[in-house]
UniProtKB/TrEMBL annotation, chain A:
Gene3D superfamilies assigned to the protein according to its UniProt record, in alphabetical order: YVTN repeat-like/Quinoprotein amine dehydrogenase
Molecular function (Gene Ontology), one example: protein phosphatase regulator activity
Protein name, as recorded: Serine/threonine-protein phosphatase 2A 55 kDa regulatory subunit B
Alphabetical UniProt keywords: Repeat, WD repeat
SMART domains registered for this protein in UniProt: WD40
Protein family: Belongs to the phosphatase 2A regulatory subunit B family.
Family annotation (InterPro entries): PP2A_PR55 (IPR000009), PP2A_PR55_CS (IPR018067), WD40/YVTN_repeat-like_dom_sf (IPR015943), WD40_repeat_dom_sf (IPR036322), WD40_rpt (IPR001680)
KW Repeat (keyword) present: yes
GO cellular component terms given for this protein: protein phosphatase type 2A complex
Keyword field contains Repeat: yes
Automatic annotation (TrEMBL), chain B:
GO annotations of cellular component type: cytoplasm
Biased composition (Basic and acidic residues): 1-20
Family: Belongs to the endosulfine family.
Assigned keywords, A-Z: Cell cycle, Cell division, Cytoplasm, Mitosis, Phosphoprotein, Protein phosphatase inhibitor
GO molecular function: protein phosphatase inhibitor activity
Main subcellular localisation: cytoplasm
The organism's taxonomic lineage, starting at the top: Eukaryota, Metazoa, Chordata, Craniata, Vertebrata
Region annotated Disordered, chain positions: 1-34, 60-100
Signal peptide: none
Name recorded for this polypeptide: Alpha-endosulfine
Residue stretches of biased makeup (Polar residues): 89-100
Length: 444, 100
């Protein structure tokens, strides 16, 4: 469905934007994660204030064939609260680092949300009926005096306005000394992993008082620390296989059948570095901020500061494809280090086409087949539905053409770190600092 | 002469590194990753010495707030906050604007 017929590039149109219009962004409103569920019907966001907002796609209106259903607020709840660990004198942020949906098994929806220390399993359920006609209770809840009851009736369920309730079903706490960066649900749908800077733990979704440590890279002497875990993900089909990426740009694939503690990797993916290019910044920009498997599980994609790389699991010594996201930043590394932007953690996603964010509210798409790429912008100025987004171009140096923007004019405070692609349709969700944009491909 | 200049062209990363070292000569010998790793692990750490704090409170009953200079023994360093300095943590009871 994606470019399958003749390789026509997808034309993206603005669909919706959620969030406040004003420029003064409250810290709590900073979006920290975006995730579609397995059917794409639900879209969840998490923010720095510990809140989760879930949007639901409208059922398609048969008369409106020119656009897909809109996403409207379905549920919102406070997932995590700020905490202070008095024993360690550690302030624990309520920021939601990741949300991962469970596949739907019954009427209710389940998701895992995590902050730096605690993972929670939330149940989101609908209530559209309520019981009426009790014998011993009035409709408003007050108890009736049994002696006043003269006839009996059978209570019945009557329809009511839809109410969506979120309740925490499991709290997975106290298993991480360091800060959780990833959670990933296993293909067995019974277990999941959580990864912090130095350790990865395996959980069973039903069991909260126990967790197995499967990776531990903490050195005996912390002075010897050279590398931390930056992301981890289970293989989509093989329930004993997972990968984790590091701050040094390596990815390790581990097989849980090999041993209880997977400190020794089964495969190590690393692109050899050109020693003549090595600089103070090399390690920082090689740090992998996100890793994602392809649907088949044959490939995985990694995001480092300047590029996206596609790896074939059968080839460890180099990626099969490399895409430059914003190479023009290589000659700005000094100032990006000074303003801390060099530490920004961009995510990536793919659905045949690779998508990742950049600065100035730009995001990039790479078509692996045609090798064409495009830069688009998430901006309220482009918000006419069904108008195709205009490609943007950054001018690295020299003469700036009309409509191009020069590197020095880029707004580095406008970062797109989180994006998500609908699992089945050409609908993408792009998060700017505090707004959520939804784009769809132009139909017809 | 043009070809010679191209051979000596500094890769952009190295040029940026030179800029950084010119601004911050004391920047460590270790590659850029290490110091930042330790900072990452220590995120959220707050230091507070209740002994020092209570001592300072007791002595300060009759005095003005101490300056950092001669009264160094009243405040342990200038990085350790007192409870008044710690930002108040409140949970977000306000609904997200995405849902508004």
């Amino acid at each position: 469905f994606l470019g399958a017929g003749g390789g026509n590039d997808i034309q993206w149109c603005f669909s919706q934007v959620k969030g406040a219009v004003d420029d003064d962004v409250a810290e709590a409103d900073i979006i920290s994660t975006v995730e579609f569920n397995h059917s794409g019907e639900l879209l969840a966001t998490g923010d720095k204030g510990g809140r989760v907002v879930i949007f639901q796609q409208e059922q398609e209106n048969k008369t409106q064939s020119h656009s897909r259903g809109e996403y409207n607020v379905y549920s919102t709840f406070q997932s995590h609260e700020p905490e202070f660990d008095y024993l360690k004198s550690l302030e624990i942020e309520e920021k939601i680092n990741k949300i991962r949906w469970l596949p739907q098994k019954n009427a209710a929806q389940f998701l895992l949300s995590t902050n730096d220390k605690t993972i929670k399993l939330w149940k989101i359920s609908e209530r559209d009926k309520r019981p009426e006609g009790y014998n011993l209770k009035e409709e408003d809840g007050r108890y009736r005096d049994p002696t006043t009851v003269t006839t009996l009736r059978v209570p019945v369920f009557r329809p009511m306005d839809l109410m969506v309730e979120a309740s925490p079903r499991r709290i997975f706490a106290n298993a991480h000394t360091y800060h959780i960066n990833s959670i990933s649900i296993n293909s067995d749908y019974e277990t999941y992993l959580s990864a912090d800077d130095l350790r990865i733990n395996l959980w069973h979704l039903e069991i909260t008082d126990r967790s197995f440590n499967i990776v531990d890279i903490k050195p005996a002497n912390m002075e010897e620390l050279t590398e931390v875990i930056t992301a981890a993900e289970f293989h989509p089909n093989s329930c004993s296989t997972f990968v984790y990426s590091s701050s040094k740009g390596t990815i390790r694939l581990c097989d849980m059948r090999a041993s209880a503690l997977c400190d020794r990797h089964s495969k190590l993916f690393e692109e050899p570095e050109d020693p003549s290019n090595r600089s103070f910044f090399s390690e920082i920009i090689s740090s992998i901020s996100d890793v994602k498997f392809s649907h088949s599980g044959r490939y995985m994609m990694t995001r480092d500061y300047l590029s996206v790389k596609i790896w074939d699991l059968n080839m460890e010594n180099r990626p099969v494809e490399t895409y430059q996201v914003h190479e023009y930043l290589r000659s700005k590394l000094c100032s990006l280090y000074e303003n801390d932007c060099i530490f920004d953690k961009f995510e990536c996603c793919w659905n045949g086409i690779v998508m990742t964010g950049s600065y100035n509210n730009f995001f990039r798409m790479f078509d692996r087949n045609s090798k064409r790429d495009v830069t688009l912008e998430a901006s309220r100025e482009n918000n006419k539905p069904r108008t195709v987004l205009k490609p943007r171009k950054v001018c690295a140096s020299g003469k700036r053409k009309k409509d191009e923007i020069s590197v020095d004019s880029l707004d580095f405070n406008k970062k797109i770190l989180h994006t998500a692609w609908h699992p089945k349709e050409n609908i993408i969700a792009v998060a700017t600092t505090n707004n959520l944009y939804i784009f769809q491909d132009k139909m017809n | 002469q043009d070809a010679q200049e191209k051979d000596r062209a500094i890769p952009p990363e190295r040029a940026e590194e030179a800029k950084l070292k010119a601004k911050y000569p004391s920047l460590g010998q270790r590659p850029g990753g290490s110091d930042f790793l330790m900072k990452r692990l220590q995120k959220g750490q707050k230091y507070f010495d209740s002994g020092d704090y209570n001592m300072a409170k007791a002595k300060m009953k009759n005095k003005q707030l101490p300056s950092a200079g001669p009264d160094k023994n009243l405040v342990t360093g200038d990085h350790i906050p007192t409870p008044q300095d710690l930002p108040q943590r409140k949970s977000s009871l306000v609904t997200s604007k995405l849902a508004g």
